[in-house]
Design goal:
3-stranded antiparallel sheet; single chain; alpha+beta; 4-stranded antiparallel sheet; 240 residues
Amino acid sequence: MEKTFKGKYEYCHIDNDKIVITRTPEIEDLVTDYSKSINDFFKTLMVFFIFIPIFTALSVVFYYIGNYGLSIYAGGGALFFLLMAIYSILVTSGIPVIYRDKIVKIQFKRILLFNSIVIKYKDSGRIKKRGILLTNNQVEIDTALKVLLTEKLIEDKNIEYKGKQIELYSYAITAILGVPVFYWFADGKLFDIDRGTKEGSALIQGGLFILIIIWSMLNSVIKNILSSFFYNIKKRKKQN
């Protein structure tokens, strides 16, 4: 028997063997729904790809006029949008049908003013994410969670603001990898930068900005790798 809950822009239909996400209250034309999702995804990518050359050009201009600090900040902006584009292509998904036997985990996340259901599923050897944005209406949120709990697709521990064990592991690993680099760079030792000069101070500030961007994206990548790793371990244990 199918159960349905409403998101902000989509409807989620849960069947015995699959989850179907549509733009309409009824399952009508999945090809059209998928085309709309792909179209929205490419619009997001276009925003990223528009800002990459803009920030790159600004970085070059600031470099040639001698403002090295702003040059690095602009370069960091270009790097940020490039990494976001790569991350979106590799990890995020807009498919309308997800089979239940491929689902790794479903989470409810409340970040700032946004509420969402995040479905993590196995696809071609890696874990991808399909998000469903929810409204801020608590009744509709409770209905969505009740449906997912009834269908045993979500656990109470995954109804929270940010994940738990994997989140902690990913932050710990990223900190171990990143903190020494941050320290050496801020101290000027990594590239033998003189902190006492104006140019050296600007380089350090801009470099730290870029390192923060890389650190954030690295944390997301490590989190995805850990999710795949723990999922495969759990799967092997069940098989044995």
